[in-house]
Amino acid sequence: MSARVIGQRLTFAALASSLVCIMAVGATAADALNDESSEGDQPVPDVVMREFEPRDFTAQAAELPSDLVEAIERDLDMSAERYLADAAAAKTADDVIASLGDVVKSAWLDGQRLHVSVGNRSEQAAVAATGAKVHVGDALFDAVRAARSQGRVAFADRQNDKVIPIEADFVGGPARSGDAPPEANSSTQTLSGGFGYVIEESDTYYRCTAAFSGTSSAGQPLSLTAGHCLVSDSEPLDGPINLLDLSLQDGTTDETGHETEGDTHADDGNGSLLDDLTNGLLGTEDPEDEENEPGELLVGGLTVGGGDSAALVEINGEARLRPEVAAGGGDPEQSAGLSIYDSMAPISGAPACKSGITSGWTCGNVVAAESTVKVGGDDVTGFMFDACTVSGDSGGAVVVGHYALGVSAGSTLTGTDCGDAGQSPQVAIGYRLSGGDTNVASLYGDDWNLSVHVGAPAVTAPVEGDVTGKKPTFRGNIDAAAGSTVVVTVGGHEPVEAVVRADGSWRVPIEDALPPGRHNYTVRAQHTPSPSTRETESETVEGTFEVAEVASLVVHTPAEGDTTNATEPRFFGTGDPGARITLEFDDSTTSAVVDDDGTWTVSPSGAERAGRFEATVTQETRSGEDEVVLENIGIVPGAPLVAAPEGGVEADYAIAGSALPDSTVAVRILREESADTIEDEPNVGEHVTVADGEGRWEVELNDLAPGQYSVNAVQAVDDLTSERSATVQLHVTSPPDGHARTGELDDDLAETGSRVFVPVMVGIVLLGLGTVGIVAFRLRGLRWR
Fold it and tell me: How does strand 728-734 pair with strand 649-650?
């Protein structure tokens, strides 16, 4: 399909005999610095913020537990991909804040935008260099701190610019029941974090949730939980403690074939004890000090009060703990687990999800990075978050993406159902794994080490059979924490290392030239999380590739049939260093030169385009040419524009708008009084038309009954359909009279979905009665994935 560029006309009122020049200059936080602080070199930050695209997390999102995805969509109203992208931004923000140190007075996230307040202007430059938005002073932070000094609990509502007081009490500890819940044999199971356990004492059963998997300094599996789970009325519980069989609570059958009632959202359990259950005893001594039966659950390191709420649960026997969290982690078949990569410090605004045996996965946001509250009369210092947390969920894991945030220690919600929240703010308190002065890391030291997942590195270049230059660049992705180390070894050469980025990507250039021929390589990854002193290492990946005097042309992205929203799609690949790469795409020819590391990037020239295209990429070297042809590269059209009418209109109204030239436009009209279209009423429903050669379209609406309507549209080019446009309101005030009136539409067509970047400087010269406007702009493309 040929490219067409939609022109835009700028009209200005004439000014007699005058010359006006208007310059728009982008301002940054550093511009506000005083003269003294702006002198000298600008600071070079150790870590900088960046924007993460949801599409870069498509593969990771597909691996998330289905019940967690459901909670993300239900509670956060976002996709799993967006959640992981925002979580990556939160982890990066955590690293930025840590690198800034005492400069930070307060910090919070608004989506992926990091805000940092400082105490004086001289500290602005260091923060601005990281890409964060800088504030001098923070009135909300000061107000919250003043409330806390008076013994009140409050947090800053950044969206509404106000302080929210918490009047309700925080309640923690286990859920109580007089009925025996189903229990499981824990001696040989492999468990995820998130499993439930039950303590029996004085004919009462206390249920709670375990959080994260870890090990002792000797390598013994230990699961972290809340200290308040093992306390009742300020006294430690000392009855038998057993693994809770959540599979029997979900309406399955026990060993006798009797069906259980299956209600994990109630305080009482149902079903009989398993015949082969081995009861354990709650103890606070080192498990090595006495012999215990296989399957016993033992507790050590119980600490409650003074800001702390934590305990360690050990399963005596051959049971193993996976480095993941599941809602119902007591049964590997109940729920897929969320792999844990590392821990991070809480930051206000970060999306947080929690796992519990009563309410399962629920999600919300961190509302305060640090707060001290009373839970059962004991001080707990940690972070506040607003994900639903009810009785029995205490002790469960709180995560941001794949990063462990803390342990749920208490909540203001006293019911057993998330529907009991009511109108007042309902928040929970989490005991931190890291960050601040009071946390798991400082409490236990080497006595508890967080277990993490470091996946096998996936090598995307060079792939098996590739022919590279003498200094190839290895690239790939990995399921591991940001900051993990990837080690690449080619043959007998010295290993080279790279650091994993927050989106899981890594890149390792080979700096020493390799001789021509076939080479073997190995790739592995390693990471030491916090809290831990133990390094976790991945499996080793092996492969081969060939080095030639002249590297062959390889196009890594896009592949045939790929689609993107970018009108200037990014083509990326490898070739021979110094060779010229030429791209022919939609009547556009552009070129680039292969970098010294053997990589190249090229995009077609800017144009308003959509549909299916053929791309030809050519490499020119001293020994000849290579050519790769890619068919059916798709560019999805942007949403069309629907012109919004001013005020009420009559029934015989013609809706107009702009779209890509010659595209098919489908206009949807709905009455506001009904959620569905009214099929028997004329003109209510879908109307299809075709935009003209200038991109204009129009739909006449005769016989439209008086009332309020919503109107939006999509456009299609080839087999690709845009997202739906913004909805405009149409208020019909009178019955039809047979004469159609067209909605007001400017002569200049609006942008139809392309993302437009206006450069920082615009010069406008007005001479005499004539006016000339010059506006430079370019369409910004998106990366292929």
Answer: parallel
Residue 341 tokens, joined: 């990569």
Residues 6+ apart with CB under 8 A from 303: 227, 309, 310, 311, 443
Q: How many residues does the chain have?
A: 785
B/e letters for 526-535, b = 16+ CB within 10 Å, e = fewer, are: ebbbbbbeee
**Cβ within 8 Å of residue 47, ≥6 positions away:** 92, 95, 96, 99, 130
Q: Tokens 């791309």 belong to which residue?
A: 615
Give me the average pLDDT of each 10-residue run along the chain (785 residues).
Answer: 33 29 34 39 78 90 94 95 96 95 95 96 94 96 94 94 93 84 59 89 90 92 93 82 60 32 33 26 37 60 92 80 80 70 97 94 96 93 95 95 96 81 80 94 94 96 86 93 96 93 92 91 96 93 91 90 90 92 95 91 91 95 90 93 80 84 92 54 77 91 80 93 89 64 43 35 32 28 30
Q: Strand runs (DSSP E) across 188-334, as ranges? A: 190-193, 196-201, 204-209, 213-215, 221-225, 231-232, 235-236, 240-244, 280-281, 297-305, 308-315, 320-325
The domains located in the chain, with CATH, are 39-137 (no CATH), 175-325 (no CATH), 338-435 (2.40.10.10), 459-547 (2.60.40), 641-742 (2.60.40.10)
Angle at CA of residue 520, ends 516 and 523, nearest 5°:
130
Amino acid at 15: L
In the block, which residue shows the tokens 């070297």?
621
Tokens of 328: 């119902």
3-state secondary structure of 228: helix
